[in-house]
């Protein structure tokens, strides 16, 4: 299966109709992968020297 990656931004969450609470929104993105038949859902992130989040992505091998 093809692996797809989506960039998650405040704007993409707002436009998607997902909840504005980040925990609920992340859960929706993760479950979307499983709903698409994914065997694997990956969460990748990088933190800066102060512990702040620099990059965060969710990818899966599901269809759609």
Describe this structure in words.
There is one protein chain. This protein is α+β, with helices and mostly antiparallel strands. It has one domain (4-60). Helix content is 33%, strand content 30%. A three-stranded antiparallel sheet has the order 1-3-2. The longest helix is centred in the middle third of the chain and has 14 residues, at 22-35. The chain is globular. The mean pLDDT is 84.
Gist of the model:
Helix content is 33%, strand content 30%. The chain has 2 helices and 3 strands, in the order βααββ. The protein has a 3-stranded antiparallel beta sheet.
Kindly report the average pLDDT value: 84
Extended strand count: 3
Which regions are unreliable across 5 or more consecutive residues at pLDDT < 50? none
Order of helices and strands: EHHEE
How many discrete domains?
1
Largest sheet at a glance?
A: 3 strands, antiparallel
- The shape, in one word, is globular
Task: Tell me what portion of residues adopts beta-strand conformation.
Answer: 25-35%
- By secondary-structure content and strand pairing, the structural class works out as alpha+beta
Number of DSSP helical runs: 2
Spatial sequence of strands, sheet with the most strands: 1-3-2
How large is the radius of gyration? 12 Å
Ends apart, CA distance between termini = 11 Å
User: What share of the residues lie within helices?
Assistant: 25-40%
Features:
about 60 residues; alpha+beta; 3-stranded antiparallel sheet; 2 helices; globular
Question: In terms of topology, how is this protein built?
Answer:
Elements: E1 4-7, H1 10-16, H2 22-35, E2 41-47, E3 53-60
Antiparallel strand pairs: 1-3, 2-3
């Amino acid at each position: 299966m093809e692996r797809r990656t989506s960039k998650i931004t405040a704007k993409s969450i707002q436009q998607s109709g997902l909840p504005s609470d980040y925990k609920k929104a992340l859960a929706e993105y993760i479950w979307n992968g499983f709903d698409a038949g994914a065997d694997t859902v990956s969460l990748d992130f990088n933190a800066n020297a102060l512990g702040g989040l620099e990059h965060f992505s969710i990818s899966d091998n599901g269809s759609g």
